[in-house]
């Protein structure tokens, strides 16, 4: 934030930002903070948060602010929305200053929409700020990525998130909830901690069984698809990340682990685990697509099983 503030004060504000956020860590909040920064009526201590411009931005009602989000009942941002945005950006700002577009989630743009946006990114009208928020930027074309200045929103430290959750939601086992969700405080705030921990315990039991060569991928996939699938996929993603971190994956094990039981583990290799992680994220972001979720999930779960010895 300090970096953006100095860039703006020095007149070196980039015209396109890509905020790369861990899901649920406030990338969208930072996007609107950036909009306030350039639209605030008190440039000397922008964003002040108090002036009418700042308040209109936080209510998403500023005339020179254009939020672009997926159309209702869709997870996709369509080409018509991007064309409309380009036309709006070409007009002079109502208040004679900046015009700001916030595209969130930018990785929700389909291919046509992304191509249309490229034209605006290549020749942005003066005093334009385009803010793209994405949790999986690799889903965007490289031509778009190369035209944006990237900001990474790291997950906040666990203790800070626990303190915030206790203050806003009351006491609960928040540290365990965050461990399950992968330090995504906004996701945690929206969850029922008791139910979430029960679900996570059940899932981890299923996943351990599958990774150990037992379990029933079809039954697990069926059960997971029935309730809370997005939350379960977040847990699955985090379970894989933790496994990689703990050195439980062949090819990534520290020597002392490698020497023990996992040395000859025929389970997925480190590369296969990363590929699987990508596939889980992909499924998570395409949940509204007309696909058979249970079948797609079952295929992913099968990739956990150790290969049968030949
Ligand atoms: Zn202000």
What is the structure about, briefly put?
With 310 residues, this protein is an alpha/beta fold.
Write the layout of secondary structure elements.
Layout: H1 2-9, E1 16-21, H2 27-39, H3 52-58, E2 65-68, H4 79-90, E3 99-103, H5 111-122, E4 128-134, H6 142-145, E5 149-153, H7 158-169, H8 174-181, H9 185-189, H10 193-211, H11 217-226, H12 229-245, H13 255-259, H14 270-285, H15 293-302
Parallel strand pairs: 1-4, 1-5, 2-3, 3-4
Helix pairs in contact: 2-3, 4-5, 8-10, 10-12, 11-15, 12-14, 14-15
Bound molecules: zinc ion (ZN).
In words, what does this structure look like?
The protein has 310 residues and is an alpha/beta fold. The chain has 2 domains: 2-153, P-loop containing nucleotide triphosphate hydrolases (Rossmann fold), CATH 3.40.50.300; 192-302, no CATH class. Helices cover 51% and strands 9% of the residues. The protein is built from 15 helices and 5 strands. The chain has helices at residues 2-9, 27-39, 52-58, 79-90, 111-122, 142-145, 158-169, 174-181, 185-189, 193-211, 217-226, 229-245, 255-259, 270-285, 293-302; strands at residues 16-21, 65-68, 99-103, 128-134, 149-153. Strands 2-3-4-1-5 form a 5-stranded parallel β-sheet, with helices on both faces. Helix 2 runs antiparallel to helix 3, helix 11 (217-226) crosses helix 15 and helix 12 (229-245) packs antiparallel against helix 14. It is globular and about 65 Å long. The model is unreliable at 255-264 (pLDDT under 50). The chain binds zinc ion.
């Amino acid at each position: 934030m300090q970096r953006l503030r100095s860039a703006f004060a020095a007149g070196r504000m980039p015209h396109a930002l890509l905020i790369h956020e861990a899901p649920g860590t406030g990338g969208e909040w930072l996007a609107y903070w950036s909009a306030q920064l350039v639209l605030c009526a008190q440039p000397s201590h922008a964003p002040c948060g108090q002036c009418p411009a700042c308040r209109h931005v936080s209510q998403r009602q500023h005339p020179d602010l254009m939020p672009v989000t997926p159309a209702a009942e869709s997870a996709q941002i369509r080409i018509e929305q991007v064309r409309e945005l380009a036309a709006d950006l070409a007009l002079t700002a109502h208040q004679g200053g900046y015009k700001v577009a916030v595209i969130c989630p930018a990785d929700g743009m389909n291919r046509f929409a992304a191509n249309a946006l490229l034209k605006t990114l290549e020749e942005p009208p003066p005093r334009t700020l385009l803010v793209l928020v994405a949790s999986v930027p690799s889903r965007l074309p490289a031509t778009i990525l190369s035209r944006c200045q990237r900001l990474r929103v790291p997950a906040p430290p666990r203790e800070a998130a626990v303190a915030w959750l206790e203050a806003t939601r009351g006491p609960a086992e928040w540290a365990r909830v965050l461990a399950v969700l992968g330090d995504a405080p906004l996701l945690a705030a929206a969850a029922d901690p008791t139910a979430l921990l029960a679900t996570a315990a059940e899932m981890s039991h299923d996943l351990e069984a599958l990774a150990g060569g037992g379990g029933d991928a079809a039954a697990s996939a069926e059960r997971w698809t029935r309730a809370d699938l997005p939350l379960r996929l977040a847990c699955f993603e985090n379970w894989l990340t933790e496994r990689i971190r703990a050195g439980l994956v062949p090819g990534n094990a520290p020597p002392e682990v490698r020497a023990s039981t996992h040395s000859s583990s025929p389970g997925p290799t480190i590369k296969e685990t990363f590929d699987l992680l990508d596939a889980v994220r992909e499924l998570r972001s395409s949940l509204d697509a007309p696909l058979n979720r249970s079948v797609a999930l079952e295929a992913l779960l099968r990739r956990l099983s150790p290969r049968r010895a030949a």
